[in-house]
Amino acid sequence: MDIKAAGTALVKGSYDSIRGISAVFKMEDEIEVKRNMSPFRNSNIKASFRDRTKQSPVKRKGQSKVWTRICHCSFMNGGVFLFSIFLFNYVLLPCLNSSIHYIFGNDSFMARLTWLWIEPILSLTFATIWTAPLFLLSKAVNSLWFQDIADSAYRSSRGKPPSWQSVSVWIADSIFSVAVQLLFLIQTMLVSYVPIYPLGSVFSLVHMSLLYSLYAFEYKWFNMGWELHRRLAYIERNWPYFIGFGLPLAVITQLPSSWVLSGGLFSLLFPFFIVSGNEANPVDDVGIYPLRLFSPVIAVSNMIFARTIGKKHISQKSGNVANLRQKFNQE
Fold first, then answer.
1. Dihedral sign from CA coordinates of 318, 322, 325, 326
2. 124, 181, 315 from 129: Cα distances, Å
3. How far apart are CA 232 and CA 285, in angstroms?
4. pLDDT tens-place string over residues 54-110
5. What is the protein's major site of localization (predicted)?
6. Do residues 321 and 305 touch, judged by C-beta distance below 8 A?
7. Kindly report the CA angle at 329 between 324 and 330, in degrees rounded to 5?
């Protein structure tokens, strides 16, 4: 096992993941350069301009749409969701607490008693009426915007994605991918309870890094026509790079103690990681052993589908799910 090559791949993965911010601004700079170019200097420039106008509108539209959707995500997740939580917890509640102590006296028993019952009531009301509905709404809207960002970024850099050969394969791949991701998230939570400190936290961080890398790269790989078995096998073979790629986002989202704040930070930053994944060229074949962390959830997913849908139904209607499992084992 080449330790040096693995460490280099991990560092490059972290570097590539952070490049998403600069990549977005670079895309916008390219738009401005194309808009400011004069097409009437000579006949050669005119001819080249006519050739560019056949291609650039799609590219300009894709790049502008990436920036627009990222601004939408930033406004909803940062400007509305996270800011409202910050305003409630660090402005409204402290001001109300100070007012109560001012009315009843700083050291009075009545002030402490009043705050003891009014604070949880206000927090519960805020979470029920505002935080939970907005969190669910943002998740639904973000899923559409994330897909839009990924598709637009892919078209702007690689053109129109190839179509899948079979609709049934596409459906089976999508359903099986969601099941694998949910089970892998559960596996991440379970390994965090390893009693030996700090192995539980390290194992959980490694799992989250790989999961976030899968989230970010899956949009591009899906547009490239890669089936699930190929996506997972590629991550397992080149795990140092993908651990490094997902590490910054995994660390940032684990800092808050609240899973709501963690989800808000993820939704705020993830669009940049989508662009990073689209622009990145992963380091592969560094001479390391595959890290088969997805194999358990693949086996459980296959068992669940076999028992809930039925083996006969899988072979006739959704046989591609079983094929995905078989192909994964062959990698």
1. negative
2. 8, 30, 46
3. 15
4. 444 444 454 567 788 888 888 888 888 889 988 998 899 999 989 988 888 777 888
5. membrane
6. yes
7. 95
Distance CA 251, CA 212 (A): 11
d(CA 131, CA 142): 16
Q: What is the 3-state secondary structure (H, E, C) of 196-212?
A: CCCHHHHHHHHHHHHHH
Tokens 């962390």 belong to which residue?
A: 293
Q: Please, which residues have CB within 8 angstroms of residue 130's CB and are 6 or more apart in sequence?
A: 84
> Tens digit of pLDDT for each residue in 248-290?
999 999 988 888 888 888 988 998 999 899 888 998 877 678 8
Residue 257 DSSP SS3? coil
Alpha helices in the chain (DSSP H): 3-36, 43-73, 83-87, 93-104, 109-126, 132-158, 167-191, 199-223, 228-237, 239-254, 259-279, 295-308, 311-316, 319-330
Whole-number Å distance between alpha carbons of 262 and 20: 20
Contact of 309 with 50, CB cutoff 8 Å: no
- Cα–Cα distance between 226 and 205 in angstroms, integer? 26
Please give the single-letter amino acid code of residue 201: S
Tokens encoding 189: 């939570």
What span, in angstroms and rounded, lies between the C-alpha atoms of 256 and 259? 7
Distance, CA of 138 to CA of 113 (rounded, Å): 36
Q: Are 282 and 241 in contact (CB under 8 A)?
A: yes
Q: Going by C-beta distance under 8 Å and a sequence separation of 6 or more, which residues neighbour residue 155?
A: 58, 59, 62, 161
The answer for residues whose C-beta is within 8 angstroms of residue 59's C-beta and 6 or more apart is 155, 156
Instruction: Give percent above pLDDT 90 in the chain.
Output: 24
CA 327, CA 325: separation in Å to the nearest integer?
6
Tokens at residue 129, please? 């009426």
- Confirm if 39 and 46 have CB atoms less than 8 A apart: yes
Is there a cis peptide before residue 120, judged by omega within 30 degrees of 0? no
